[in-house]
Amino acid sequence: MSEEFPDGGERIAKYLARAGVGSRRECERLIAEGIVTVNGKVLDTPAFKVTGAEDIRVDGSRVGAKEKTRLFRYYKPVGLVTTHKDPEGRPTVFDALPPGLPRVISVGRLDLNTEGLLLLTNDGELARHLELPATGWVRRYRVRVYGYVTQARLDKLEKGIEVDGIKYGPITAKLDSTKGHNSWLTCSFREGKNREIRRVMESLDLTVNRLIRLSYGPFQLGGLQEGDVEEVPAKAMEELLGKKWVQGAEK
Question: Which domains does the chain have, with CATH numbers?
Answer without folding.
Answer: 2-62 (3.10.290.10), 71-132+228-246 (3.30.2350.10), 138-216 (3.30.2350.10)
